[in-house]
Write a structure and sequence with these properties.
With about 230 residues, the protein is of the alpha+beta class. The chain has 3 domains: about 50 residues, RNA-binding S4 domain (Structural Genomics Hypothetical 15.5 Kd Protein In mrcA-pckA Intergenic Region, Chain A, Roll); about 80 residues, Alpha-Beta Plaits (2-Layer Sandwich); about 80 residues, Alpha-L RNA-binding motif (Alpha-Beta Plaits, 2-Layer Sandwich). About 20% of the residues lie in helices and about 25% in strands. It has 6 helices and 13 strands. The strands form 2 sheets. Strands 5, 6, 7, 8, 9, 10, 11, 12 and 13 form a 9-stranded mixed β-sheet that branches. A 4-stranded antiparallel β-sheet has the order 2-1-3-4, with no helix packed on it. The radius of gyration is 22 Å and the shape is elongated.
């Protein structure tokens, strides 16, 4: 990340002041004086300000991101850009997604460096509800509501899915609430009833509702963080 962003975050000062301190030759990276705020830091480099080593903040971090299509929810991928492209924070590579989305699925992703917190979201034992907006290829029939509520038999799996709540909006749009996270589950549930998902968007995880534009991110509030305690 940029050196001025790193310094502003860890010193608690504005980028204007950071710029003045850089020009005053008070900042070194790996022992070399750096005067440009645009200098790109790597996680392995050591930053000193006025002779003191800056230790990165170690408090856990919690964000929501509105993921666009075409990005993967891993920290590194040789074939596709990752969601970390949108995160302008110190050491973004330390963050992980608490529940991933497919490459072509959009919407709410929760990012954190708190493994215990994310486990409470992703572990099957906690039955965390996720709400999706679904667009399908074939018209939806009302009998699917009861079918989804009883559980769907997915291809190559022995057990039914857990009861899911299907709300039909119109012939081709629905809202689906599930409480587990099997591989490509929503798409496979509709495939099992001879339909095809052509667009999928996650709008809610637990009590956290997506409320930011596509491609943007924000810190979670303390109440949102505590909702998974």
């Amino acid at each position: 990340m940029r050196l001025d962003k790193f310094l502003a975050h860890h010193l608690g000062i504005s980028r204007t002041i950071v710029g003045k301190e850089l020009k005053a030759k008070k900042v070194t990276v790996d022992g070399e004086i750096i005067k440009s705020g645009a200098y790109q830091l790597t996680p392995q480099q050591q930053v000193e300000y006025d002779g003191y080593i800056i230790t990165p903040v170690t408090e856990n971090r919690y964000f929501m991101l509105n993921k666009p299509q075409g990005y993967v929810c891993s920290t590194d991928d040789p074939d596709h850009p990752t969601i970390l492209y949108f995160i302008d924070e110190p050491m973004p590579e330390k963050l992980h997604a608490a529940g991933r989305l497919d490459l072509d699925t959009t919407g709410l992703v929760l990012l954190t460096d708190d493994g215990k917190w994310s486990h409470r979201i992703t572990s099957p034992k906690h039955h965390c509800q996720k709400v999706y907006e679904v667009t399908v290829e074939q018209p939806l029939s009302s009998d699917l509501i009861e079918l989804f509520a009883k559980g769907i038999k997915l291809k190559s799996e022995k057990s039914l899915t857990k009861p899911a709540q299907l709300m039909i909006i119109d012939d081709y749009h629905a809202e689906l609430t599930i409480s587990e996270g099997r591989y490509h589950q929503v798409k496979r549930m509709f495939a099992a009833v001879n339909n095809h998902v052509i667009a999928l968007h996650r709008k809610q995880i637990g009590n956290i509702i997506l409320d930011i534009p596509e491609g943007k991110y924000r810190l979670l509030t303390q109440d949102e963080i505590n909702s998974f305690s």
